[in-house]
Amino acid sequence: MNTKKIFTCLFFSVFGLLLMFSFKPLDAHAYNYPNKTAAKAGDILVTKETNCKNECKGLSGHAAIVVDSTYFVHISGPGAHPTKEKLSTWFDSRYGERTRVVRPTSHYKGSAADAAKWANKYVVDYKNATYSIASSLDSFDKTYCSKLVWQAFNSTAYPIVAKDLLIHPYSFANAADGGRTKPLETVYEKAW
Q1: What is the span of the domain harbouring residue 117?
Q2: Which residue among 18, 70, 119, 192 is least packed, with the fewest CB closer than 10 Å?
Q3: Nearest alpha-carbon partner for 71 in 82, 51, 85, 54
Q4: What value does the mean pLDDT take over residues 144-165?
Q5: Burial of 99 (0-12, 13-18, 19+ CB in 10 A)
Q6: Is pLDDT of 17 > 80?
Q7: Would you indicate the residue range of the signal peptide (predicted)?
Q8: Cα 77 to the chain's mean position, in Å?
Q9: Are 67 and 112 in contact (CB under 8 A)?
Q10: What pLDDT, on the 0 to 100 scale, is given for residue 181?
């Protein structure tokens, strides 16, 4: 009788553990854009606002990449370093007043999740990278907002927009306006 109770308890313990680890826990802090669309790793945030006053004066816009359902990575401007911040800080700031969020479509040949992982690792490995719009697209120690986003996709096998001398934040928004086989689609926009 004791052996039967032990096996029954053992069975239910193992069964309970299997149940516990077979379900992905809900992320209670996952961010939804103001239109209630859930944020996804690899989403690209583009705004018409900018922090630049000197070095990038004359260029407008800013871009960042969403690295998970709660955070994004960007470099905000001269004097800044790459940072990882909560999505709510983007939408609670002036960036959120004029923002378009674009997401890779099924026509994109790469992995948005891999690009997000790359950006997440970049912000750790190159935490002291400095802001420079004059930096080569092949360098990692100097970067700017849209270059960082471009490199995240380009470094994971397939670029999201074509390589150019300067990757402009609006390049991502424009790719969402492309033809039938566009690589990006708009999932949220405000005052665009």
Answers
A1: 44-190
A2: 18
A3: 85
A4: 89
A5: buried
A6: no
A7: 1-30
A8: 18
A9: no
A10: 73
Cα gap 42→119, rounded to integer Å: 9
Please return the burial class of 111, using the count of CB atoms within 10 Å of its CB with bins 0-12, 13-18 and 19+: middle
Six-digit token pair at 145?
């907002």
CATH, residue 87: 3.90.1720
Which residue from 73, 87, 63 is spatially nearest to 124, judged by alpha carbons? Answer: 73
Q: Is residue 153 part of a domain?
A: yes
Beta bridge partners of 66: 72
- Structural domains counted in the chain: 1
**From CA 46, how far away is CA 43, in angstroms rounded?**
10
Cβ atoms of 83 and 74 within 8 Å: the answer is: yes
Residue 100 maps to a domain: yes
What does DSSP assign to residue 24? Answer: P
Residue 60 phi/psi, 5-degree rounding, is -125, 160
What is the DSSP pairing of strand 44-47 with strand 99-104?
Answer: antiparallel
Res 52 pLDDT > 70: no
Residue 136 lies in a domain: yes
Residues above pLDDT 70, as percent of the chain = 80
Helices (H), the chain: 2-22, 87-92, 112-125, 145-154, 170-176
